[in-house]
Specification:
This protein has 297 residues and is mainly alpha-helical. It contains 6 helices and no strands. Helix 1 packs across helix 3 and helix 4 runs antiparallel to helix 5.
């Protein structure tokens, strides 16, 4: 055991621990690293793919085609059913709004009852019918609904159709007025031709007035006296007939042809023609005095 210091004497300093230094710090050489040898060899690669037989491939191809066709039929069936359902909801709403004036009360009650019955059928017996059944059901509804929507559409488009026809009549009336005033644009047209335009204008004006009068006598829920398509066709025919006359071009006036020069004779150059004329013209002669004025010796 280390001796204990006597009382009154200072304790000796603690002994320092000594650590061994690494070999490279001590100046010793590092040991040489071992070299790793790498060898490259070719690895064989073999492709192995599974392949169906021709018979199996044809079978699955046919099966896929059947599944695609079945999906298409199912989509068409669902679309047809949804179309009937949407039509029921749409028409039932419009019968109380935009179409209310275009169907009689009696027809409205019958159509509404048909719509309600179709809705009940869709959620009962018609839940899972084929496509053709839904198409037939839609045809039954349209037989009642289409006349109503046609009357509504005609009433919406008829004013514009009559307005276009009226504008065409006014247009050709103005042309007739300009013709009567000897307008340079139309003065070349024969009077007989312009008389045809005048007759067409008067005839079409009377026709339009008659159709508008007949339509005004009908209620909105009655079929129209004339269709918009007929009005537009009449306007097109009228405009085509009149334009064929009033748009006739003026006859072309050909300028006078220059006289042909004899062969071998060159045409005079500008500025030389007058000079040549001056050279060829003889000098003016002085008028001779009559014999009576002469002196006689």
């Amino acid at each position: 055991m280390p001796s204990q210091p006597e009382a009154g004497q200072p304790a000796p300093p603690p002994a320092k621990e000594t650590k061994e230094k690494p070999a490279h710090e001590a100046g010793e050489a590092e040991p040489a690293k071992k070299k790793v040898k790498v060898h490259s060899i070719d690895l064989p690669v073999t492709s192995c793919t599974g392949q169906m037989s021709t018979q199996a491939l044809n079978h699955y191809t046919e099966l896929e085609g059947k599944m695609i066709a079945q999906d298409k039929l199912e989509k068409e069936r669902a679309d047809s059913k949804n179309a009937v359902e949407e039509y029921v909801y749409e028409m039932r709403d419009r019968l109380s709004t935009s179409l209310i004036d275009f169907i009689s009360e009696q027809d409205k009650e019958a159509f509404s009852a048909k719509l309600n019955a179709t809705e009940d059928w869709l959620y009962d017996e018609g839940e899972d019918e084929n496509k053709q059944v839904y198409l037939d059901k839609m045809d039954e509804l349209r037989k009642l609904g289409d006349p109503v929507t046609v009357r509504y559409r005609e009433a919406e488009e008829r004013p514009a159709a009559f307005e276009d026809l009226g504008k065409s009549i006014v247009h050709f009336r103005k042309i007739l007025k300009r013709y009567s005033e000897k307008d340079e644009k139309y003065v070349h047209i024969a009077e007989e031709e312009m008389r045809k335009v005048h007759e067409a204008v008067e005839k079409k004006q009377a026709w339009m007035n008659e159709q508008m009068s007949n339509q005004a006598k009908l209620s909105k829920f009655q079929n129209p006296a004339i269709l918009v398509l007929q009005i537009r066709s009449a306007n097109d025919e009228f405009v085509k007939k009149c334009n064929a006359i009033v748009n006739k071009p003026k006859p072309k006036v050909e300028p006078p042809k220059a006289e042909a020069k004899p062969e071998g004779e060159a045409a005079p150059v500008a500025g030389q023609e007058q000079a040549g004329a001056d050279q060829q013209a003889p000098p003016p002669q002085q008028p001779s005095q009559p014999a009576a004025d002469l002196d006689v010796d």
